[in-house]
Amino acid sequence: xxxxxxxxxxxxxxxxxxxxxxxxxxxxxxxxxxxxxxxxxxxxxxxxxxxxxxxxxxxxxxxxxxxxxxxxxxxxxxxxxxxxxxxxxxxxxxxxxxxxxxxxxxxxxxxxxxxxxxxxxxxxxxxxxxxxxxxxxxxxxxxxxxxxxxxxxxxxxxxxxxxxxxxxxxxxxxxxxxxxxxxxxxxxxxxxxxxxxxxxxxxxxxxxxxxxxxxxxxxxxxxxxxxxxxxxxxxxxxxxxxxxxxxxx
Length: 249
Fold this sequence. Notes:
Layout lengths: L1 E6 L13 E6 L2 E5 L5 H7 L9 E3 L5 H4 L2 H10 L8 E5 L3 H11 L11 E5 L4 E3 L4 E6 L7 E7 L2 E5 L7 H6 L5 E5 L14 H11 L3 E5 L7 H11 L3 E4 L4 E3 L2
Parallel strand pairs: 3-4, 4-5, 5-6, 10-11, 11-12, 12-13
Antiparallel strand pairs: 1-2, 1-14, 2-3, 7-8, 8-9, 9-10
């Protein structure tokens, strides 16, 4: 399984961090989890094109997690090398309406041409793909927000998207080889719907995950402090993600 953090930041501009996106190559599938602004360009930088993508999974509908869905679908429609293989976009309930409204707002310019586009709304479930399985759990953020777990080839990856502490995120990361958690704000600035470094550490410990990766980092988070806070509750490996970082799995 190949994993690349495309964007480790948020909707607030930062020097070294851009909005959320995770690329995963699992089995025969090219998978994208979240599509914040600039995701399409960062995919290109790691050698993956919009033509390669098989599936896009959205955790929720805040712009820093889904804005580049428009760019990706527009590129597929406008490409001179016309796309033919199908694409499936998954998300919480409301993702069909999101697509319809975006397509209307952009005057039909993200409507598929030459390929089949499927939009699927998910709750807690499991989707079997070619050589891997993607399962979901409800997160504590916006209504219906999802976290995703990918299993294939003897490896497992869990990605929370945005969430607060909840049973779902612990279940999602249970015994995961790689647990990618949002880490939005320092412990002293806790806000509802997001995690702090200490909370990330406690979740990883409760889940017995092997490697904790902190992402979705707002500029107020100090890098060294974040990793240190997480390690107080968790004895496994801790990584503070960077844009375009490749993760071992």
